[in-house]
Amino acid sequence: MSFPKDFLWGGAVAANQWEGAWDVDGRGPAKTDVTTGGTVNTPRYITYIDKDGNPGKVMQFGKIPEGAKFAVLEDYHYPNHNAVDGYHHYKEDVALMAEMGFKQFRTSISWSRLYPTGLEKEPNKEGVEFYRNLFTELKTHGIEPLVTLWHFDTPLYIEQNLGDWKNRDTIELFVRYVTTCFTEFKGLVHNWLTFNEINNTIQFLDMMGNPSDKDFQDSYQHLHYQFVASAKAVQIGHAIDPTNRIGCMICGITWYPATCDPNDILANRHAWERNIFYCGDVQCKGEYGTYAKRLWKEHNVNLDITEEDLADLKRGTVDMYTFSYYMSQLVTTHEVKEKVGGNFSAGAKNEYLQYSDWGWATDATGLQYYLETIYDRYQIPLMVVENGLGAFDTVEADGSIHDDYRIDYYRPHIQAMSNAIDNGVDLIGYTTWGCIDVVSAGTGEMRKRYGFIYVDMDDEGNGTMARSRKDSFFWYKKVIESNGTHLD
Ligand code: BG6
What we know:
By secondary structure, this protein is α/β, with parallel strands linked by helices. Helices cover 38% and strands 17% of the residues.
């Protein structure tokens, strides 16, 4: 097995799914705080008060009506409010990660913890202090923080009043926020990611049903402003500390043609361009791919792109390509017999693969395929910053949790990374998703668990929040100890 000796083994969470403390110490709300819990069959909802004062809700990817205001309503459970209370348990959680031998821990900074509305001129001191304490705690245990600057959580005020990323002004507010992050945490954090799963904005369109050309226009514009914000963040991060390594973060799904019909082969190529390369090319190469014009034309998209934006994109290319990987998807031009979803994407069912209880395909070979494809395209270091299995866990009477299904998921994925390294891929790190159980982003559930560390908390928010070790905890510890050679 071929993992380099300084390979960055670890785990990942996001602020809004781990920290909780949504209104503590001056934090302002984010969109996740007005998003209810759901299940595998029922959506999460965003709640609001309409212009006549009536409460209402729309599905997670829908739009609230004209004139409505986002609102926390009685009678709904908002799982991200308390999440698993990482805010107050971080010392204990970091100690458990250190016990597993983590070299790296990925989390995000909650923008609204530092800038409650996003508009303040100075950051919230208590917010800064929390992250400084967290990063110091990690360093004390020999764990490098890997920090995402935006993980689906713009301050709600910006969403409500400025229209989020549809508004160019959001770029400057983001610049203020990231400048604070790079300045305040200089020396503590060296590895940064700008936008989590930035390409989801395109994939979300597939979840909307029948998106209009206006929806495409808005999404591509939103992405362009995020690209500029990301490129500016890279430049600022490098200027403040030249040792900073800054990456993009793409929702990595391996797309396959469902048949060998040449039309499916072409459709698959176009799926890679739209879903994967569109963002990677801008962030790694500093310019839009040639196919971008076709994508825009298909939906009459006309973007606000200035000369200065293009110069920024060129100057702000990333140092590494990082991505999440859970599954592959099938593309076809033929009638789809059975549709499947998973990680904010939709495709056709693949009869060669097994599916999880949440309908996500398990495909370790797809990870090797993705790694080799992407490295060949960009030739910069890669990190897999999310990978894992969301599953039900059972706590035995003695408190033990036998999650061999999780180990069975990880083993071939780690083997796939090893194969890719053998084939020349410069893979430098791996952080499994939800190394400690957190609130699911897609369904808002707790019972969709990914962790090596179990958290006693249910879907309704009942539980002691006590942490305990699953069987996979001891297994992953051995994997790290042996630098990926001990997988049994
Ligand atoms: C990724 C996100 O989409 O997948 C995470 O970056 C998310 O925030 C993870 O939690 C797993 O998805 P889910 O819906 O199972 O939580």
